[in-house]
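WARN no homologs supplied; continuing
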Amino acid sequence: MELLELIQDLFGLALGRIIRARELKLMRAAAGVNAAESLDDALEILAETCCFVADVAGTTVALWDEAFTSATIRAGAGTSLTLVGETIAAADNVSYCATQTARPVVPRIRGEEGLSERLARTSADRACVLSVPLLVNGAPRITFQIEWNTLQTVIETVPDGVIVSHHSEVSLNAAARRLLRLSPDDARPKLGELVIRRLDGTVADASDYPSRLCRATGREQSARLLVELGGENRIIDFKAAPMSGGFVELIRDVTDEHGEQTVTAHFLESLFDSLPVAAGVSDAVTGEVINVNRAFEQLLGFSGEELVGTRHPYPWWRAAESPFRWDAPAGPVNSVYRRKDGKPVPVELLPFLVRGADGAPARVVVLVSDLSERREFERQLVQSGKLAAIGELASGVAHEINNPLFAILGLVEFLLRDAEPGTKAHERLSRAGSARAPLRRPRPRRDRPAARNRHRDRPHAPAQGMRQARRGLAHAGRRERAAPWPDRLEGH
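OK structure emitted
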C-alpha cells in the first residue's frame, strides 16, 4: 500500500523531494533539453532522466495527436527503449486515461486495451504502471509511463491474494484469481457476484465488507467471512488498506486454520467449564467479567448470564472490597463472597495476570476455592481440643478426690475386722463399706474423640460413689444418736 501511494505521488510532492536530492542530474537534464535540436531528442533526455530519478525499470514517452485518437511512443529508457515507435489507441489504457483526467493514473495489473501487438505482449509482464500527463498548450498531449518490473514478480509470487482498486479499475494477482475461482482471461472480474455470508451463515451486508468500510472511514479494516466458491463454502480473511483513489485488499483462505482454531477453542472452553475449581476471567483494564465456569455459578448461585458483563463492585463482593492490584505481591487472598441468597461463603482467591502481545495487562484469571468445609473442620478441631482439655482437668480433679476417699474406705475395712458382728458399730461400718463402688471412667461420646487418660491404671472416683458413702455414714450416725445410752456403750 505504501509503495502504491508513493507511485501515485511520485510526480507530486514526492517528485519535488527526489528532484532536490538529485539536483545535479536534473540541472544537466534541463541543459540538455534546452540544447536539444528536436522534440524527440528532448523527450529522450526526459525519459532517461525520469528513469534515473525514479529508479524504475523503464520509462516511455507517448505523444498524442490533437484529436486524442492515437499516440506514438517517441522516446524510451531502460527496458522500454525497444518500444519506441509503438502506437496506442484511444481505449481503456493508462496513457489515454491520463489524458482524459489530466492527472496521474495507476491502472490494474492486467487488462489494458488499445495497445499495439508488441505493447500488448509486454503489458502482461508489467508489475505496475504510472502514467503522468504533461500539458502542451493547455492540453495533456504527452504522457510518461513508468514501469516497475520487480514489483510484478513480487505481487505475482505472493501466496496471498492481492486486489487493487483504483477509481473504477480493479486488479487481481494470480493468487487472488485462483482463490476466487476466476479465469486469467477475465479482464473485469465481477466480485460483486460472489455470495458472501457471515460466519453464522447470515448474508453479509455492506457494513461487513472491509473494502467498503475502508473507503468510507479511510482506515484499515479486516473481517473473516464465508464465501461460496465452486459450490463449496470457504472461510476467507479480508484485510483492506486505503490509498489515494482506492484501496489495496489482501485475501487469504483460512478454512483449515479456522477449523483447527474452532476445535481448539471448543476444547479449551469445555476444559474451562468442567474444572472442579471455580474460575472466572475478566478484563484487566475495565474489570468486566468475560467468562465464568459452571463451578463458579454453583458456588455463588448466579447464572452465567447474570455474571458475564458485570463490573466492579461485583454483586458477590463486599462493599468495601477493592479490585486486585497488580503491583502488590502475588499470592492467595482470603475473602468472603456473598451468594445470591445472601449467605456468606468464605473463599480463597488465587489471581493470575495474562498479558497481551504488547506486554500490557490483558486478562485476569481468578481461581476461587470454597473454604466452608475447611472452616467447619477447623471449628470442630478447636471444639475437640476444648473437650480434651476439660477431660484432662476432670481426670486430675477426680484423682485428687480419690486419694483421701480410698484412705477412708481402707480404714473402714480395718475397723470391720476389729468390730464384733451383730453390734451397732459393725452394722454402721458394714453400711459405710457397702458404699464402695467400682470407680469407673465415664464412657466417651461417640460423636467426638475421647480425652486421653493419663491415669489409666488408677481408680477413678465418681461423684455418685462419694454421695453413697456420705449417705451411709450419715445414716449410721443418726441411728447411733437415736439409740439409748446403754446400747451405745454396748456397741463399743
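Residues 372-418 form the longest helix (47 residues).
OK
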